[in-house]
Structures are given as structure tokens and as C-alpha cells.
Design a protein that fits this description.
heterotrimer; A mainly alpha; B alpha/beta; C alpha/beta; A: mainly alpha; MetI-like fold; 3 domains; 23 helices; B: alpha/beta; Rossmann fold; 6-stranded mixed beta sheet; 10 strands; cell membrane (chain A); membrane (chain A); transmembrane helix (chain A)
Chain lengths: 581, 226, 318
């Protein structure tokens, strides 16, 4: 097989990710010697000799290349090094974490598949329609939010299930639900959205017309839908690795995700390297498995049939729904912006909602509404900047389709949380690091979209007509290609804004983004967890705001797609109308 | 004139291992219609693209108004391109969905610096009128028009370049019978009036026999005796 | 020719909300005949074909009746006694199922047969349409078939249960002449082999002339003219049929083709009068006020107030 541009990009991106992991100690640029010294022996004085002994010990003085070499050779021998903090071998702790996480993910996958089946069945039975708002919402709610709400409702208020630890099957229920429901929503949505278009294909008409029963047609449609979607199922499974970090943290599950996060926070870089490597490997193996399943599903005869699905026709949303979500959010934010988010009032700690504090106060007596309003400025503002950056990069790279496709593959295999952990480990946690992490993975889908549009425009007859009238390439590029590509990609970028904000919030929640006392939404939710039994409103306010944001993302996307659908419908029905004058 | 408007010798077009056009020769005079007829996949459309130099032929000569085109660079071709214009099969696809009809027709004038704000709009209206389109159509976009109207707009855009040769690639295949007749009449009138040469590509034998002066039957990239 | 109707359609109406796309069609299809439904896009012919099979779109309201001889429940007979050859036969097979399995699924949905027996019937049907080495080919996928073979397989699927009526919706659209003739030939052979009638939906008058026994010319959801092909196309009595015929390119020296001016009306913008009146050179005041009923003229049914005055299109049309 000849290497394709996408394949090369894929290999390069993978190598870069591996190198970034290997070079973490050097990339971080901060002197870990003191951390290590403190961790190893509290009594020892931080003298220059002791510190440089540790540096030598860690191999930090030899420079990046030898560091990378040492790490790589150790890796080949199955040696992941020793922890800077505990001084123990890393392999056993990674292995035990991985074991726990795999169990959790398997349970989550079961939840996801059950939910997906429940979502797809009505579409198959009715033959039309889509899984609707519930699936979209389930897919959009981030795991950390769902986990917190599940913890609050089932664990704390109702007391049904244990919320912390990993001692038996009952400990698995809530984490598996929190991890599995968004994945199931996404799975179900992928299938349910693709089904109506497949049921409109010609062969369904032929089968119906030849008398084939509805049940048979329904199963055949499922058989038709699944193989092209398998790579996306793989992505959903990869997404579980990212979600696991948040869910394990919330429920104190000793899995690989929590290990990675803990290592990043305590600057235990070798442990972090091992944990991230395990997560990456998990993602890659899932991707490979997905490819294998796809080949099995297709069988040798179909492998070269170039199967693709007809474009899904999304259900149109009423504009009032996103407008209502947006208005509600804006009202709360606007009100909150008028108040002081930093004013500490120790006499009014954890006060319930009142006229003075409409959403109550937090553990330091700060007004929750004020912090919510100001948090929006930082969360959504940062998200907007990330969005704009992604758009510019996507438009520039959209003209090099190979690169865009390869990079999109890698970015899809990397959950934002893991990139966030890496960036935070290298650059220290902070808003800028979180923004960088999210930006790194948010441009590729846009670039892939841009590349597809560029290809479509370049292949169109009207562009050929442009060349035929003798228009120079620059004219064609600036007057036809760019305008055709920029507007839809910009719309796409705008649609991703709430999603990007949620990704930023999830990094904030994990302590990888904005730092206290900044009023970032994810951070607000995280801080409120400590006193959630006594002051649930402090948790509910940011949770509700994040849920509204997710709702806005879903309904806004549905509305915009519905509109886009209507606009292009003039072209899709041209076969029927072309013959009428 | 000593030489034909278009003279094609031993044209070869390959797509990888597949030879789409295999040593095809023909010529088209001004005011004349030469039809290429044959089943789908016989190389008709590849010939059209190769004549227009929109896909460079792999071998052979394409002489237009006595000038050999195959050796010219893209930049050298550009000033010659307006003199040979295509009309495509898909009436909607050949116009930009984002452009109003008026702007699409004006574009050839603008590309070649012949646009004059004073009389340009009048020229566009004249062209629309020439192809039988109401001036109000000019302010619409392709999806707001019928297939026949779009095809007329495509012809108006081709005329804006003042061409000598039109390469008509299945121009009426996507149109209903009653609409088809109108477009064929329009093409006949334009030819009589402007003395245009037509390379007319069509798979419908009845249309070809009605419309063309001469016909080349094609099979697998080669002419076959009729 | 037996005159007893095999399929009777009475006052068929299909509407989407307020808009009526098919506005009262009445016709019979007789055993073993080729019945053509002809019209331009938007005339409602494909919708009508779907309604014959009980396959109208979900959002459509269907009125009137469609009956098979000695049977009322049409939906139960779909696939058994009436089947469909859909448009665009090149993409009409499922890409992920072996061709033989698709035919067998049709067999097993209609008859209680074992998997093996159904497969044998599928192979026999493929063999009948001229697929070489049918037993082996039945296990192949559509993308392993050539274009012509795919078209044959689609026809085989529509005839595998030996129906009484085959409805073919634009089976030749977008095909070049050779393919077109090939498809029509296979359709004719299969029709004879299983003894079915064929309802041929098309916009191509040449196809009607060469392959159909009777024709229904549709305009704006109604019948303009209905009768034997020889009468209707030989000497049309509806101005619309005459105009369509006249606009066909003819052999011989190039001349201006007579063109039907104007455009077909949108179904939601119909006046009280004849739908064709705005484009009709013969239209008078009554035409704009009152929709003409079908009347017997010259061996066929015509809906026109001026049926007697329609000139012969093959000589000169206005």
C-alpha cells in the first residue's frame, strides 16, 4: 500500500504525541528536583548539592534527546521508570489502574449499548424520524457534569448507592452510568440519524415493492447502517478514556484516569508518562479494533465497495428553543456580572438563596450568581478565542486535504482531557494551557469539514466553467472557493462554541484550567463538591448553567442544520425539477 | 479561411490504465454543428474537456483558429479561453449557488477587464434577453429558477465571452421534452445569427439527427462507422 | 384482447396538506397489456405509480380506490401480485446484501418456503433474466455486477414472485439508447414469461410509442388523454399531447421546433379552469372557467373543450 498524505500525517502526529509524552520532564521546564526532594524526605535541606544529585539521578541534565532515548529504551524493556514521589516502580500502579478502568469502561459500554438500542428501536419501528432531543442532550452533557449530578441525587440525597471507592459491583453503578449515558446518547444518535436517510434509499423501495416484510427491511437497514459507522463507534470508545478521568475523580475510583490526573497535579512526571501512555494505547487499540470489526462486518466481498452513508437529514429544531436557552443563560450572566464575584463575607458562608444572594453563597461566603456571571465571561470568552483560532487554522489547512484528514484522525483519538493533562503537566495548569489543549483538538474537525468543502467546490461544474472563461487561479480562489467554504465552516465553528466551552469547563473542573479564586464554571462545580450536602445550590447553579449550555449546543446545531438543509434542498431536488421549465 | 475553426488530430485521453479517447480526429467549421454521439462512457465528455484544455490530452493536437493549444501554458491559454466556451449538462451545477444570475453572466466580462460600470449592466440585460430570460431572472439565484431557465443562463454566460466555438456537453439531456425544444431552438438561432461553431455532445440519437450537420458515432473512445 | 380490468383505479386523489398533486384519476389496467403513464416532471405520474402499490409517501393523503381483480386488500398483495421496478435501477439493490439473498428475502416474505427453496427460486429468476452462471452470481454483491446485470437483477427481483402487474417507474431515465432498449427488452420478456401486465411510467414519448399498448397522458395531476397508443400518439386530441409530440426533434433538415410556451403550473396555484389553458393556443374563455371532463372522442378519452379542433401536430401546430 502506498503511503497517503493522511497516513503520513497520522504517523507524524502519533510520533509527536509519543515524543511529547517522553519529553514531558524536559518540556515542563520547571525544576522538579525540589518537588522530588520534598516528597522523598521531609527532613533533608534543599541544598544545591542535594538538588543537583537528584537532577543527575533523574537524568535531567543530559538534555532532551538522551532523556527521550532513555525513556524509549526503558519502554521497550517494559520499564516505565520509577515514581518521583513514591520511588516505587510505575508499571504495577499503571497496571492496576488500567485493570480498574477497563472494568469501568466495559460496564459503561454496556450502559451505552443498552441506551443506544433503546434510542434506535423506535426509529426502526416507525421507519422515519430521529432519536430526537433526548439522545442529542444525552450526547452533549459532559461526563463530569453527569457524574456530579448523579453523585448529588442518587448518592447523597437518596443514599441509594455508594459514591466513593471501588469495593464491589454496587460501586460500579453510578460511574458506569455517568460514563455510559453520554456515550450511549452519541451511539444512538449516530445510528438513528443515519437510518432515515438509509430508509429513503432506492433499494428500500425495491424491497418494499417486491413484497419484503417491514421487519426484514428494518434489519437490512441496520445491517446497511452499521459498517460505515464503526470507525465512529471506535471514537466513542476512545472518548470513554477521556470521560474516565472525570468520572473516576468524582467517584474516587482508583483507575488509570485518576492516576494520570493525580500524577499531573503532583508533578510526578514518570507516573504521568506511564498513565498517559496507557490511555493512548487504549485509544489506539480501540481504534484498531474498530477497524477490524468493520472489516469483519463488511467481509472480503464488500471491502472495496467504498461504502458510505447517504447524508443524514437532521430534524429541524424550532428557533425558539435555542433562543430560550440563550436568553435564560444571558439573563443569569447579565445579572451576575453586575455583582462582585470576589467579595468574601465569612458571616454568610453557604447561605441559602435569598434576595441578597439570589443563588446563595459558597464556602467563603461569595455570591454564587456573581461568580456564575463573571465565570461566563472567562469560560465563554476563552471558548470564543479558541473557536476563532481553530477557524483560521482550519481554513488555512483545508486546502491541504491529506493533512486535514490525518490530523483529524489523531485529534479524534485524543480526548481533550488527556491533551489537557499533558499541556498542564508541561506548562502548568492555567486558563492559557487549557485553551491551548482545547484548541489543539478543536481545529481538526473544522479543517476536515473545510477540506471536504474545498474538494466539493473544486469538483463542481461551475468551477470548471470559471476556468473555461479564463479566470486566473487567484480570482477563482478568492471569489468562489473561499466564500463557498468560509461561511459554512464559520457556522460550524460557531456551533462548536458551546462544546468548546464545556471542554474548557471540564478542564477547569479537574483543576487543569483556571485556578482559584477565578470564577470559572467547571472550577465552581469542583469547589462546590466539598460541601455539596450542606449547600447543594452552590453546585446546582453551575450545573444548571452547564446543562443550559449543552442544551444550547444541541438545539442551536439542530436549528442551523435544519436551515442549511432547507437552503440546499433547491439543489437536491434538481433531478425532479430540472425537466420542468 | 484556410483552416477550420477547430481541428483535432489523434486525440488521446487516458485515466490511469483506461484509455477514454483513443486517437480521435475531427474538425468543426464556423457555423457548423458536429455531434459526438454514443453510449455513456464512450469518451464523449472526455473529448469535450480535452478540446477545452480543461483536462490536458495525453497525446494529439488541438488546433483552435489555427493555433495549437496543447503546447500552451495555462497562462498563455487564458486569453484564448473566452473564444471557446462550454455549456454543461447539469443546469444547476454549472452555476454557483451563491451567485445571482446577473453576476454570473457579468463575470466573464469582469475577469477579462471588459466590465464598464456604465454600460455593463445593460450588456448583461441584453444577454439575458438574447437567451430568452426575463430581466427579473437576473436578480435570482440558480435554485430559484427552473432547469430550463438555468440552462439559458449558462448559455448567456458563455455568450458574454464573445465565443466562436461552443462545446455543448449534453446541454438538453436533463430537460423535459417541451423545455428541450425551446433550448434547441435557441441554440439554432444563436448559431444562425453569430456563426458559432458547435461541438455537440449528446447520447440521444433523435436529438442528434435533428440538430447536427455531421455526426461521429463513438464507442470506447473511437469513432465507429454509422 | 380481454377487456376485464386486472387493476382498477377510481377517482384517485393524492394530496399533501391542502395541495392536491393527483386530482382524480380513473383508469383500468388489463391483463397482459403494457399501460404507459406519461407526463412531464411534476405531473404526478410517479406518485400515482406509488399509490398503485400502496406505497404513497407517509405525509400524503390518498383518496379514491385502487383494486386488484377479485381482491380488495391491496397492501397484502404487494410483492405477491403487484410489484415495483424503481427508478435508477443501477442503485436499486442493497449494497450490503448478496443479490440472491435480496431476491430470496422477497420470496420468503410472500411464500412459506425454506431458505433453500427460496434461494433456488432466486437463482431461477436470475437465470431467467439472463444472468450468466446464476447460481454462483447469486452469492455476489451488487458492486460485483456490471451495470446491465444490476438492471436485470432488479427486474428479476420484481418478477421473482410471478406477479400479475409490474409497475416500472421511469426504468429508462438517464440511460443511453442501448441500455434503454436492453432494459425494455428484458422487461418485455419477463412480462411475457410470468404473464404479467406492465405499468410503464415514463416521460419519454418514444418509449411509449415503441413499447406500450395503451397510454394515459397526465398533466398537472389529471388525465389529459387516455386511450390506445396508436390513436393517442397517431392523432392526438388533447392540445397538450399534440404540443408535446410536436416539440420532439424529427429527422430531416433542421427546423425550429414548435415549443409549448409557459411552464406547468404549481399544484398549489391552480385556477378553476383547465390546468393547461394558460399555455394552450386554443384556449377560450370557457377553458379558463371550467375544467373539462373526460369525454370519448375518436376512440379515446380526452379532457378538452376543443378536442375536435386540435390540429395534427405532425403537420403543423399553430
Amino acid at each position: 500500500m502506498r503511503p497517503t498524505a493522511a497516513g503520513v500525517t497520522r504517523a507524524v502526529a502519533l510520533a509527536a504525541a509519543l515524543a511529547a509524552v517522553g519529553l514531558l520532564p524536559w518540556l515542563s521546564g520547571r525544576d522538579p528536583a525540589l518537588t522530588v526532594l520534598r516528597a522523598r524526605s521531609v527532613e533533608q535541606e534543599p541544598t544545591e548539592e542535594a538538588l543537583s544529585a537528584i537532577r543527575r539521578d533523574l537524568g535531567l541534565e543530559a538534555g532532551p534527546l538522551s532523556l527521550l532515548g532513555d525513556w524509549a529504551t526503558g519502554l521497550l524493556r517494559g520499564d516505565l521508570g520509577t515514581s518521583w514521589v513514591s520511588g516505587t516502580d510505575i508499571l504495577p500502579s499503571v497496571a492496576s489502574g488500567l485493570q480498574v478502568s477497563l472494568g469501568l469502561m466495559a460496564a459503561a459500554l454496556l450502559v451505552a449499548v443498552l441506551l443506544a438500542v433503546a434510542l434506535v428501536t423506535p426509529v426502526l419501528v416507525r421507519g422515519k424520524g430521529s432519536a430526537g432531543a433526548f439522545a442529542a442532550m444525552a450526547a452533549a452533557v459532559p461526563e463530569f457534569l453527569l457524574a456530579t449530578v448523579a453523585l448529588l441525587v442518587c448518592g447523597v440525597w437518596l443514599g441509594w448507592l455508594p459514591t466513593s471507592g471501588w469495593q464491589g459491583p454496587e460501586y460500579m453503578v453510578l460511574p458506569a452510568l455517568a460514563l455510559g449515558v453520554p456515550a450511549g446518547g452519541l451511539l444512538g444518535r449516530l445510528v438513528a440519524d443515519a437510518l432515515p436517510a438509509v430508509l429513503d434509499e432506492r433499494w428500500v423501495e425495491l424491497w418494499h415493492g417486491a413484497g419484503v416484510s417491514r421487519t426484514r427491511v428494518a434489519f437490512a437497514a441496520l445491517r446497511r447502517v452499521l459498517p460505515p459507522l464503526v470507525p465512529q463507534f471506535g471514537m466513542v470508545a476512545v472518548g470513554l478514556t477521556g470521560g474516565a478521568v472525570a468520572v473516576e475523580t468524582v467517584f474516587a475510583v482508583p483507575g488509570i484516569g485518576r492516576t494520570a490526573l493525580g500524577a499531573a497535579k503532583s508533578q510526578d512526571l514518570p507516573l504521568l508518562q506511564g498513565a498517559v501512555l496507557a490511555l493512548l494505547a487504549l485509544g489506539l487499540i480501540t481504534g484498531a479494533l474498530a477497524a477490524l470489526v468493520r472489516r469483519r462486518l463488511l467481509g472480503p466481498a464488500l471491502r472495496d465497495a467504498g461504502l458510505s452513508l447517504p447524508p443524514a437529514r437532521p430534524a429541524r429544531a424550532h428557533p425558539a428553543i435555542p433562543a430560550a436557552f440563550g436568553a435564560l443563560l444571558l439573563a443569569a450572566i447579565g445579572w451576575g456580572l453586575l455583582r462582585d464575584p470576589y467579595a468574601v463575607d465569612t458571616t454568610a458562608r453557604l447561605a441559602p438563596p435569598s434576595w441578597a444572594n439570589p443563588m446563595g453563597t459558597d464556602g467563603l461566603g461569595r455570591d454564587v450568581l456573581a461568580r456564575l456571571g463573571h465565570g461566563a465571561a472567562s469560560t465563554v470568552g476563552t471558548a470564543a478565542a479558541v473557536c476563532l483560532l481553530s477557524l483560521v487554522v482550519a481554513l488555512a489547512l483545508g486546502f491541504v486535504p491529506g493533512i486535514a484528514a490525518g490530523a483529524a484522525d489523531i485529534a479524534n483519538a485524543l480526548p481533550p482531557v488527556i491533551v489537557g493533562i499533558l499541556v498542564a503537566a508541561a506548562a502548568g495548569p492555567g486558563t492559557r494551557g487549557a485553551a491551548l489543549a482545547v484548541a489543539l483538538i478543536s481545529w481538526p474537525p473544522l479543517a476536515a469539514h473545510a477540506a471536504a468543502l474545498v474538494q466539493e467546490v473544486r469538483a463542481s461544474a461551475f468551477l470548471t466553467a470559471q476556468r473555461a472563461i479564463g479566470a486566473p487561479p487567484l480570482w477563482i480562489l478568492t471569489r468562489h472557493v473561499l466564500p463557498s467554504v468560509a461561511a459554512p465552516v464559520a457556522r460550524h465553528a460557531l456551533l462548536r462554541l458551546p462544546g468548546i466551552a464545556l471542554a474548557l469547563a471540564s478542564l477547569g473542573f479537574l483543576g487543569l484550567g483556571a485556578q482559584p479564586p477565578a470564577p470559572e464554571w467547571g472550577l465552581l462545580l469542583d469547589e462546590s463538591r466539598a460541601y455539596v450536602e450542606r449547600a447543594p445550590w452552590a453546585a446546582l447553579a453551575p450545573a444548571a448553567a452547564l446543562a443550559l449550555l449543552a442544551g444550547l449546543a444541541v438545539s442551536g446545531a439542530a436549528y442551523a442544520q435544519g436551515r442549511g438543509d432547507r437552503r440546499t434542498s433547491g439543489r437536491t431536488v434538481r433531478k425532479e425539477t430540472a425537466r420542468a421549465v | 479561411m484556410s483552416h477550420p475553426l477547430l481541428d483535432v488530430r489523434d486525440l488521446v485521453v487516458r485515466y490511469g490504465p483506461v484509455t477514454a479517447v483513443d486517437h480521435l480526429s475531427f474538425s468543426v467549421d464556423a457555423g457548423e454543428t458536429l455531434a459526438l454521439n454514443g453510449p455513456s462512457g464512450c469518451g464523449k465528455s472526455s473529448t469535450a474537456l480535452a478540446v477545452l484544455q480543461l483536462r490536458r490530452p495525453d497525446a494529439g493536437e488541438v488546433r483552435f483558429e489555427g493555433r495549437e493549444l496543447t503546447y500552451l501554458t495555462e497562462r498563455e491559454l487564458r486569453p484564448l479561453r473566452p473564444r471557446m466556451q462550454p455549456v454543461f449538462q447539469d443546469p444547476y451545477g454549472s452555476l454557483s449557488p451563491r451567485q445571482r444570475i446577473r453576476d454570473a453572466v457579468a463575470e466573464p466580462l469582469k475577469v477579462h477587464g471588459r466590465w464598464n460600470p456604465a454600460n455593463g449592466p445593460a450588456r448583461v440585460t441584453e444577454l439575458l434577453d438574447r437567451v430568452g430570460l426575463d430581466p427579473s431572472c437576473g436578480d435570482r439565484r440558480p435554485h430559484e429558477l427552473s432547469g430550463g431557465q438555468c440552462q439559458r443562463a449558462g448559455i448567456a454566460r458563455a455568450l458574454a465571452s464573445d465565443p466562436r466555438l461552443l462545446v455543448l456537453d449534453e446541454p438538453v439531456s436533463a430537460l423535459d421534452a417541451s423545455v428541450r425544444a425551446g433550448v434547441l431552438n435557441l441554440l439554432a438561432d444563436l448559431q444562425d445569427e453569430l456563426g458559432l461553431g458547435y461541438l455537440f455532445i449528446c447520447h440521444d440519437r433523435a436529438v442528434v439527427r435533428h440538430f447536427a450537420d455531421r455526426v461521429i458515432e463513438m464507442r470506447e473512445g473511437r469513432p465507429v462507422p454509422t | 384482447m380481454p377487456s376485464e380490468a386486472l387493476l382498477s383505479v377510481r377517482d384517485l386523489r393524492i394530496s399533501f396538506g391542502e395541495v392536491e398533486a393527483v386530482r382524480g384519476l380513473t383508469f383500468d389496467v388489463r391483463p397482459h397489456e403494457v399501460f404507459a403513464l406519461v407526463g412531464e416532471s411534476g405531473a404526478g405520474k410517479s406518485l400515482t405509480a406509488r399509490a398503485l402499490l400502496g406505497m404513497a409517501p407517509r405525509d400524503a393523503t390518498v383518496g379514491g380506490s385502487v383494486r386488484l381483480r377479485d381482491n380488495v386488500d391491496l397492501a397484502a398483495e404487494r410483492g405477491r401480485r403487484i410489484t415495483l421496478v424503481p427508478q435508477d435501477a443501477l442503485s436499486a439493490l442493497s449494497p450490503v446484501h448478496p443479490v440472491g439473498d435480496q431476491l430470496a428475502a422477497a420470496v420468503r416474505s410472500v411464500r412459506r418456503l425454506s431458505r433453500r427453496e427460496a434461494q433456488a427460486r432466486a437463482v431461477a429468476a436470475l437465470d431467467r433474466v439472463g444472468i450468466p452462471d446464476a447460481a454462483r452470481r447469486a452469492r455476489a454483491y451488487p458492486h460485483e455486477y456490471s451495470g446491465g446485470m444490476r438492471q436485470r437483477a432488479v427486474i428479476a427481483m420484481a418478477t421473482v414472485n410471478e406477479p400479475d402487474v409490474v409497475v416500472a417507474d421511469e426504468p429508462t431515465t438517464a440511460l443511453d439508447e442501448e441500455r434503454r432498449e436492453q432494459v425494455l427488452r428484458v422487461l418485455a420478456e419477463q412480462r411475457e414469461a410470468v404473464g404479467a401486465a406492465l405499468v410503464l411510467v415514463t416521460h419519454d414519448l418514444d418509449v411509449v410509442r415503441d413499447h406500450a399498448d395503451r397510454v394515459l397522458v397526465m398533466y398537472a395531476g389529471r388525465a389529459a388523454e387516455l386511450g390506445p397508443v396508436r390513436q393517442v400518439l397517431g392523432r392526438p386530441r388533447a392540445p397538450y399531447t399534440a404540443g408535446l409530440l410536436a416539440s420532439l426533434p424529427q429527422d430531416g433538415p433542421r427546423r425550429r421546433l414548435p415549443v409549448l410556451g409557459g411552464t406547468p403550473p404549481a399544484p398549489d396555484a391552480l385556477g378553476p379552469g383547465c390546468a393547461f389553458a394558460p399555455r394552450c393556443p386554443l384556449a377560450t374563455d370557457p377553458c379558463h372557467d371550467r375544467e373539462p371532463a373526460l369525454q370519448a372522442v375518436d376512440g379515446r378519452l380526452v379532457a378538452c373543450h376543443h378536442a375536435a379542433d386540435v390540429p395534427d401536430p405532425l403537420r403543423k401546430f399553430v
